[in-house]
């Protein structure tokens, strides 16, 4: 049987403003990732100098600023995307549908170790049922999860040049692996964002149609 719209309260309104803001800020996160990848060779050289002579260690201002920008934009993108998802869920519920999925998972699902590789996807799948195909959803989520893995490899590589038991520099060339890893991470998050853009636009436009 079809869903019957509820009549309590004013009719739901498409969250166009939230959708646009979420698209812009998640796109900005991808852009910062690309800029960070472009500056990674300089970061590698700074690390090499630091490991070779810790007494001459210096702070790379560009890397520091990009790191702060990445964090700030990432937090903002998360908040706006979660707000958009929550509004879509509320609208569909008001229309008499039951989106299903873990309740409010768009807020807490990202922070459960290992489960966060599944929970946000389940939340997005729930609110986009019959609106967006599974292929588009996987196009968003699989590259994003792969980006997490590559980013972790990037962080681990920074310590690969050091013997952690002695603190001595052992293989400085390992640091060069950070450059392709940074580009891979940036490429993955950019591909993920392109699919997310489609998801947000299509869902925002179609979720109130009957």
What does this protein look like?
The structure is a single chain. The chain is mainly alpha-helical. The protein has one domain (16-206). It has six helices and two strands, in the order αααααββα. The chain has helices spanning 16-52, 61-94, 105-108, 119-127, 134-157, 178-206; strands at 162-163, 168-169. It has a two-stranded antiparallel sheet. A hairpin with a 4-residue loop joins β1 (162-163) and β2 (168-169). It is elongated and about 65 Å long.
What's the structural blueprint in terms of helices and strands?
Elements: H1 16-52, H2 61-94, H3 105-108, H4 119-127, H5 134-157, E1 162-163, E2 168-169, H6 178-206
Antiparallel strand pairs: 1-2
Helix pairs in contact: 1-2, 1-6, 2-4, 5-6
Briefly say what this structure is.
The chain is mostly helical and 210 residues long. 65% of the residues lie in helices and 2% in strands.
Structural class designation? mainly alpha
Helices, by number, come to 6
Shape descriptor: elongated
Oligomer: single chain
**Portion in strands:** under 5%
Mean pLDDT: 87
Spatial gap, N to C terminus: 14 Å
Widest β-sheet, arrangement of strands: 1-2
Tally the structural domains.
1
DSSP helix fraction: 55-70%
Low-confidence stretches: 1-7
Rg computed from alpha carbons, rounded to a whole number of angstroms: 21 Å
Order of helices and strands: HHHHHEEH
Counted beta strands: 2
Reported for the largest beta sheet, the result is: 2 strands, antiparallel
